[in-house]
User: Which sequence fits this backbone?
């Protein structure tokens, strides 16, 4: 077998599901799950031989629309086809396709600089795009009017900042922009800021200010809520409270696009997660199956003759049954584990786990 290293000109030629998608350069040898060999791969005896470091360089891909692409779905909450955004020569979003259903909580995961905020703010109508099609609640954010905007709730990554107004005044002022707002005091209760209603915005702690941002985002009774890193700076208790707030909004039918660094948050809240790296979506899946997690070999470990033993297996039940027959009582320190969301995520973005 030839131990070749292949040049990968750009990631655009990779087939969906290719392990090198978005991160050529990270693998030396890998079993390729793509049924047909894509142009990154030289298949030899089932092996897909990758890679070339140079291909990691961000480069301006051709931004023209792909004629084979399905048109965006006007019935989806968000439908994106071939989205591209450049800052000067730097390509921040590089041909992104995504559909988010109505009523869904979708989490966009990715390292700093991956293009999450750029993508979200294009959907909000805050940033322009260089190429691609975007429909949000059936309309193009670049051209949509006030009635469309009134259906959105927005929690920006940067937040509301300092204010001389009190918390209640800020939420009331925001409510006044919307045709059918929620009751501001109920919203303060929902985000746990009732006790701080009379306090000036600028004297809140970081976590409280973030909760105020969320209050400002939901007071307009949005159909679609954008939350860009909403829990950064929260302590664990505040994060849990926030999660239950998100769940209660979901029960009211609110669609949410959330970006986060916290994998446990994505796992706890999201119906589906999308992993974005270098401006491209590497995978979209339900959290339990991201990166083939649910079918990845399980690792069975136990203690035997004073030593820790472990075995990776696709049939953990059979191994556990075998162990149970070998030990008279409990199998010492028996554990069965599969890759965590963090393990598969780090692998996807090319970090060692
Ligand atoms: N206004 C801007 N001007 C120039 N570069 C920008 C601007 N906004 C974002 N970028 C760059 O685009 C890339 C993606 O940024 P961003 O969308 O904020 O990523 P994320 O939210 O995933 O951290 C980063 O490399 C960032 O430095
Ligand atoms: Mg961001």
Assistant:
């Amino acid at each position: 077998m030839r131990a070749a290293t292949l040049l990968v000109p750009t990631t655009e030629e990779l087939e969906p599901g290719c392990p090198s998608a978005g991160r050529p350069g990270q693998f030396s040898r890998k079993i390729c799950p793509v049924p047909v060999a894509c142009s990154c791969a030289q298949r030899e005896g089932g092996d897909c031989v990758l890679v070339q470091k140079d291909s990691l360089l961000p480069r301006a891909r051709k931004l023209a629309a792909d004629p084979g692409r399905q048109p965006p779905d006007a019935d989806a909450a968000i439908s994106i086809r071939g989205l591209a955004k450049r800052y000067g020569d730097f390509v921040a979003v590089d041909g992104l396709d995504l559909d988010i259903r109505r009523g869904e909580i979708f989490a966009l995961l990715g390292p700093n600089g991956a293009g999450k905020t750029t993508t979200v703010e294009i959907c909000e109508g805050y940033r322009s795009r260089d190429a691609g099609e975007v429909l949000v609640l059936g309309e193009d954010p670049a051209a949509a009017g006030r009635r469309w905007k009134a259906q959105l709730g927005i929690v920006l990554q940067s937040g509301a900042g300092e204010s001389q107004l009190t918390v209640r005044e800020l939420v009331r002022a925001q409510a006044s922009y919307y045709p059918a707002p929620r009751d501001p005091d109920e919203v303060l209760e929902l985000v746990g800021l009732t006790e701080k209603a009379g306090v000036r915005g600028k004297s809140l702690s970081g976590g409280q200010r973030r909760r105020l941002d969320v209050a400002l985002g939901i007071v307009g009774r949005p159909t679609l809520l954008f939350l860009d890193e909403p829990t950064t700076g929260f302590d664990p208790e505040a994060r849990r409270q926030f999660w239950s707030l998100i769940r209660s909004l979901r029960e009211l039918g609110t669609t949410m696009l959330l970006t986060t660094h916290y994998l446990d948050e994505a796992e706890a809240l999201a119906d589906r997660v999308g992993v974005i790296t270098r401006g491209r979506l590497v995978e979209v899946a339900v959290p339990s199956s991201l990166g083939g997690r649910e079918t990845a070999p399980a690792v069975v470990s136990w203690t035997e003759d004073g030593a820790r033993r472990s075995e990776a297996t696709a049939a953990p039940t059979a191994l556990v049954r075998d162990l149970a027959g070998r030990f008279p009582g409990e199998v010492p320190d028996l554990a069965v584990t599969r890759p965590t969301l963090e393990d598969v995520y780090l692998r996807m973005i090319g970090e060692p786990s």
